[in-house]
Request: fold
Amino acid sequence: MPETAEVVVIGAGVVGSSVAYYLAREGINVTLLERESIGSGASAHATGSLSLLGAEFTAGPSFQLARASYAEFPDLVPELESLTGMNLLYQRRPSLRLALDDEEVDLINSLMEWQQPHVKMRWIDAREVRSIEPRLSQSIIGAMYEDESAQLDSYRFNLGLAGGAERRGAQILYREVTGLVASGSTVTGVATSSGDIHCDAVVVAAGTWSRAFTPWLGFPVPVRPMKGERLLLNYPGEPLPVLISSPKRGHMISRLDGLTSVGSTGGRDYDQRELFAGEEFDRQPTEPARLELLQRAIDVFPDLERAELVQQLAGSRPLSPDSKPIIGPVPGWNGVLLATGHTTKGIHLGPITGRIVADYICRGGTHVVSDMAEFLPDRFADFADADYLAAAKTVDE
Ligand SMILES: Cc1cc2nc3c(=O)[nH]c(=O)nc-3n(C[C@H](O)[C@H](O)[C@H](O)COP(=O)(O)OP(=O)(O)OC[C@H]3O[C@@H](n4cnc5c(N)ncnc54)[C@H](O)[C@@H]3O)c2cc1C
Reply:
């Protein structure tokens, strides 16, 4: 008997698991295929920061997408926790985006200009920053204070989405997809390491590996791995009362499990040759990154000199040529959708990606943002490899 599903989702990272979850919630018969293990890609390496601030989101549909996804978490997290019994270590707290030099002041101000009407935020001076957290560096010039941002454990979130999808009727199979099965331009299934699975629609959510689908689709799926490293520290002092980040020095977050996360390395930390040295997902922690990240963290919070290193994580983000996600139907095909290329925001944007893909499959389109054009796959019918470099430079977290 051939195996069948209405929809096959390829890749059980946060994005694919979220797509499977939202489809299962609609009552769709969905099979999620994973070649290794849940969270074996980028999703287990992420900080889990859910923040609207930063250079990753631009004015217009990109920011609408970010806000819409942020708004999913307050209901989604308890829903997943109750379905699975897991604690996703989700916290919502005020945040500070710190400026330690004039360049950071300018970077923050340029974002505040267009973000302020949409998000509750205000500039505070160094005195007010230290009244919130007196242990921060004397070099701080000021900060943008945001009433609320959030963070969770990205690996637990990934497991929670996949487990939640299963509880709602999805099937998870541990198999590698090795090709598509089609009748003309209509997809009829996927080929896997142990036989074909017939289906009406396929969602490619294979993170940095999505590029392998280019020859099978005859259509570009432009995603490249872009490395990032971060550290988990054991700090003996009181936890930070706010979530902290700075444009050039990354994040500093007291997690709900008691560890302090600092990092990450981003586009500014690599030259062009290093950045695209390999086509493979890079899990290798490096000494230069460890030393650099520790120094940056101590510059912001000198008492971290007392902290011990618990874990150094390294992984690769699925970078798209404009650093925006690639979501929606593949031109020229019936029944193939992409949900990939989320670059440095795949945890934050996972839920809304799931909702949008479910909208396309169940209702033929979506109204989540005013215009989907900047996320649709057809924007890359023509792109140059050089575009990746420009996109990588915008990744500061
Ligand atoms: C250091 C670092 C910090 C980050 N911090 C944040 C953050 O704070 N906030 C945020 O929003 N994002 C952050 N990110 C980015 C985030 O991790 C990614 O955008 C996100 O995890 C991408 O999810 P994904 O599901 O697309 O890919 P992945 O998690 O990589 O999942 C893809 C899955 O597909 C599977 N697969 C591949 N090919 C096949 C196949 N042929 N058949 C079956 N399965 C297949 C893989 O095994 C893998 O499990 C960070 C990333 C890094 C590296």
